[in-house]
Write a structure and sequence with these properties.
110 residues; elongated; mainly beta; nine-stranded mixed β-sheet
Length: 110
C-alpha cells in the first residue's frame, strides 16, 4: 500500500512497521488477554490506540441442516477500543438462542 505522499511500509517483523524513510510508522504490542496497543507518531507526538479484551465462551446454534455448530469454546473477544482523543467504542455480545441466558454463551451479531 502507498499513502498520498508515496510512502510505503518497507519492513515489518509483525510488531514494528518501518516506512519508506526508515522511520517506525507503527508499533503493535500486547494482545489478549492484555490490551493490544497500536502506537504511531501523531502531529504532537506518539499516540496510542488500545484494544481491550474480555473472556467469553462462544457457541453457535444456527439450527440449519448442513451447517456445523461451534461447541462451547472459551475465547477472548474485543470489549473496548480506546482512541487517542479520549473517545471509545464498547462492544457487547448477545446470548446464543437455545442456550442458558447466563451471559457465558455468547456470539457476535454483525
Amino acid at each position: 500500500m502507498t499513502d498520498a505522499n508515496g510512502n510505503t511500509i518497507q519492513t515489518t517483523d509483525g510488531s514494528h512497521f518501518t516506512d519508506t524513510l526508515g522511520m517506525t510508522a507503527l508499533t503493535v504490542s500486547g494482545g489478549p488477554p492484555n490490551p493490544l496497543v497500536f502506537q504511531y507518531a501523531g502531529p504532537a507526538g506518539d499516540v496510542s490506540v488500545y484494544v481491550d479484551y474480555s473472556a467469553y465462551t462462544v457457541q453457535t446454534n444456527f439450527g440449519c441442516s448442513g451447517i456445523g455448530e461451534l461447541p462451547a469454546t472459551p475465547v477472548y473477544l474485543v470489549s473496548r477500543i480506546s482512541l487517542p482523543d479520549g473517545t471509545s467504542y464498547t462492544f457487547q455480545y448477545e446470548t446464543t438462542p437455545g442456550n442458558p441466558a447466563d451471559g457465558w454463551h455468547d456470539h457476535l451479531r454483525l
